[in-house]
Amino acid sequence: MRPFALAACAALAFPAALSAQAQDMPTSPAGQEALEILREAIAIPTVQGRGQVPVLAEKLTSRLVEAGFTAEDVSFTPMGETGYLTARYAGRDRSAKPIVVLAHMDVVEAKPADWERDPFTPVVEDGFVFGRGAIDNKGDLAMVTAAMIDLKRQGWVPERDIVLLFTGDEETQMKTTQAGAKALSNAALVLNADSGGGELAEDGTPFVYTVQAGEKTYGDYRLTTSDPGGHSSRPDDTNAVATMSAALSKVAQHRFPPKLSPLTKAYFEGSAAQVDPELAATMRAFAANPNDMEAADALSARPEYIGVVRTTCVPTMVEGGHAPNALPQSASANVNCRIFPGTTRAEVQAQLTQLIADPAITIEFIDNGTIESLESPLDPAIMSALEAAVHERAPDLAIVPGMSAGATDSMHFRALGIPALGVSASFMRPEDEFAHGLNERLPVATLDPGVKQWETLLTTIAQ
Ligand SMILES: [Zn+2]
């Protein structure tokens, strides 16, 4: 997944025409290679069930081996129709705990008919690369691969091993992540390319950089109801579709209680310096007192902050009925929750049951392999390396720790006690963010500085 926007610039409103820094081709060779890798990756539809992850892994392997990685350093572990790729960048001290750089090769499904352009044909237009996976997560995967290749060609040798781990089912089961985390359970640190990152203001200038150091717990709940049904010309008191609709309506309108953790407190305090005075006051009020309902509600009114303030649950899928002229015999729906760390899934299920308050509706938790994970500590040495890397492209940019909506591969490492930080090198405006959505895109202008950011980060941490 890609992080939700972590802060927003409400102060400036530049006309769109002034805002675009349209760049259609990176200027550095490594940036150009990143674009090539990204285009190649978008063209391979690594959607669950299509068996294309190994195809992408093979392309990446060829590039890495061509750049000087040995065939033994790069390996693909197949798991069903998918699998995970590891590439070991050998360091001077082979016995030191490695640094893992994490990204994912798979993407969520995209229906070509709904898109303006074919989702699996990379198109560079108006300064963006369009295509499924452009931002989630093939853009950063391409940048970090280009960075490793560039460093290898330069002959740089890290003090310890750096291991690229590209998973193959992050968007679905995360089985490859679990296997990869197990195989690399001696890691000292995980740098995840799939969260965190830079936000641009409306005029395209860098506004804030977020490091993802924790995430919400992901939870899907299946709601079902059934009914004897009958002829639609003879309706009675009960109707499965109407019963389900009423339940979903309650879920959609419900607000869970606000919460604050050390990480979200740091996030709001850090973000307050970046926003207009009114919003800043609201953030500071909430950071000082999470029971300030006025502040909690004001922040929750903004899609970019509601996930940081509380658990959220929304209906995401619904089905019911079997014929246009029959009373429905069943209706079911999926409710997707992003649960604040510290609240269990069972507690949320109990809250949903209480909220819906209809014994005709059955609520069942769907186990998709995601787990609860801990917040990672912010190591000052790592943070200063990150600062060096980010400030090269955006001097003095505020770096704010944050929590994402979940779920990312990081949780499987955090669960093993390994700190994991989301440090994407993608910078974009929130309004250009279409991860999982239609017309997903990445600004071409982020590729040159993005590759450089990865290089500086890795060479500083593992110099
Ligand atoms: Zn992702």
Structure explained in plain terms:
It contains 14 helices and 19 strands. The two termini are 30 Å apart. The protein has 463 residues and is an alpha/beta fold. The protein has a six-stranded mixed sheet with strand order 1-2-6-3-7-17, with helices on both faces. It has helices at residues 16-19, 29-42, 53-66, 138-154, 175-183, 240-253, 262-272, 277-288, 293-300, 303-309, 345-356, 380-393, 410-414, 447-461; strands at 74-79, 82-89, 99-104, 123-125, 128-130, 162-167, 189-192, 197-200, 206-215, 217-226, 230-231, 312-320, 326-327, 330-339, 362-366, 399-404, 420-422, 427-428, 441-443. 34% of the residues lie in helices and 22% in strands. Bound molecules: zinc ion.
Rounded to an integer in angstroms, the radius of gyration calculated over CA atoms is: 23 Å
- Chain oligomer state: single chain
Strand order of the largest sheet: 1-2-6-3-7-17
What is the CA–CA distance across the termini?
30 Å
Major β-sheet, in short? 6 strands, mixed
Brief description of this entry?
This protein is α/β, with parallel strands linked by helices. It has helices at residues 16-19, 29-42, 53-66, 138-154, 175-183, 240-253, 262-272, 277-288, 293-300, 303-309, 345-356, 380-393, 410-414, 447-461; strands spanning 74-79, 82-89, 99-104, 123-125, 128-130, 162-167, 189-192, 197-200, 206-215, 217-226, 230-231, 312-320, 326-327, 330-339, 362-366, 399-404, 420-422, 427-428, 441-443. A hairpin with a 2-residue loop joins strand 1 and strand 2.
